[in-house]
């Protein structure tokens, strides 16, 4: 980013879906780098457990808010909370996602709406809420978590894959819109990641093809740094 916090002040990173899996590993990676971290999640018990774990590592540099990014005002509430707590948002990681496993002809309207509200509206609204502050402070980084399903959806993941294809197109569009403001927008597209969501969908996937959450988190962290700003607009794939 072109305008990071003044010397000695930590960057502030907001991670959606930060209570488990890739989101939690990402929060841990940013904490390890000395950043302040805000996580959100819709499962309050899981979120509290994650915050306790992170606080043991990062102390007062950790905060959490219980919300569902798919709700219409969630993005605004998340960013307002983060700014009140730490003063700014330097990095936004749009990680929250849901993946209903059902062929299109058999998917319920509730499953369809949940997938699109979380995977599309959540990314859009949170990005929109963070944008003005990043413009005012002279820059920032937004990392969107996509999936290899965006280009190669497994049967039953067509709607999920389509939502992630939207994420990648949105990444390209907002990267162009952000150039003049030094807001760098990138996406990460993992293959199978060893997370609770994967276990629920495909418990029999061999372990040797599963990525560890911290491998994806490391890539997300690297893309958030000034050295990777030339990757703006790109989707970076990672798989076994």
Structure characterization notes:
The chain has 240 residues and is of the alpha/beta class. It has one domain (12-238): NAD(P)-binding Rossmann-like Domain (Rossmann fold, 3-Layer(aba) Sandwich), CATH 3.40.50. It is built from 7 helices and 7 strands. The protein has helices at 21-32, 44-58, 74-86, 109-137, 158-178, 196-201, 213-223; strands at 12-15, 36-41, 62-66, 91-94, 140-145, 183-190, 235-238. The protein has a 7-stranded parallel β-sheet, with helices on both faces. The longest helix is centred in the middle third of the chain and has 29 residues, at 109-137. The radius of gyration is 17 Å and the shape is globular. The relative contact order is 0.15.
Which descriptors apply to this entry?
single chain, 240 residues, alpha/beta, Rossmann fold, seven-stranded parallel sheet, 45% helix
Quick recap of the structure?
With 240 residues, the protein is of the alpha/beta class.
Here the CATH topology equals: Rossmann fold
Number of strand elements: 7
Main β-sheet, spatial strand arrangement: 3-2-1-4-5-6-7
Regions with pLDDT < 50 over 5+ consecutive residues? none
CATH superfamily caption? NAD(P)-binding Rossmann-like Domain
Distance linking N and C termini: 30 Å
Count of separate DSSP helical elements: 7
Approximate helicity band: 40-55%
Q: Supply the CATH architecture.
A: 3-Layer(aba) Sandwich
What is the average of the pLDDT values? Answer: 92
Rg estimate, integer Å: 17 Å
Structural class: alpha/beta
- Kindly give the count of domains: 1
The description of the largest β-sheet is: 7 strands, parallel
What is the C-level CATH assignment? Alpha Beta
Q: What is the element string, with H for helices and E for strands?
A: EHEHEHEHEHEHHE
Shape: globular
């Amino acid at each position: 980013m072109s305008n990071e916090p003044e010397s000695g002040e930590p960057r502030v990173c907001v991670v959606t879906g930060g209570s488990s899996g890739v989101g939690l590993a990402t929060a841990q990676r940013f904490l390890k780098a000395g950043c302040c971290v805000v996580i959100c999640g819709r499962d309050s018990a899981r979120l509290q457990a994650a915050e306790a774990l992170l606080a043991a590592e990062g102390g007062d540099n950790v905060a959490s808010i219980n919300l569902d990014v798919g709700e219409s005002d969630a993005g605004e509430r998340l960013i307002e909370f983060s700014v009140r707590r730490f003063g700014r948002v330097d990095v936004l990681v749009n990680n929250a996602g849901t993946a209903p496993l059902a062929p299109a002809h058999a998917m319920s309207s509730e499953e369809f709406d949940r997938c699109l509200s979380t995977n599309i509206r959540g990314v859009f609204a949170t990005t929109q809420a963070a944008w003005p502050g990043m413009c005012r402070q002279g820059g920032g980084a937004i990392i969107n978590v996509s999936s290899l399903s965006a280009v190669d959806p497994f049967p039953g993941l067509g709607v999920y894959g389509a939502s992630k294809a939207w994420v990648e197109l949105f990444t390209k569009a907002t990267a162009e819109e952000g150039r003049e403001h030094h807001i760098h927008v990138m996406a990460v597209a993992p293959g199978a990641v060893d997370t609770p969501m994967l276990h629920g969908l495909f418990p029999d996937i061999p372990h040797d093809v599963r990525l560890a959450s911290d491998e994806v988190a490391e890539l997300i962290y690297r893309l958030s740094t000034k050295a990777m700003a030339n990757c703006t607009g790109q989707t970076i794939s990672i798989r076994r």
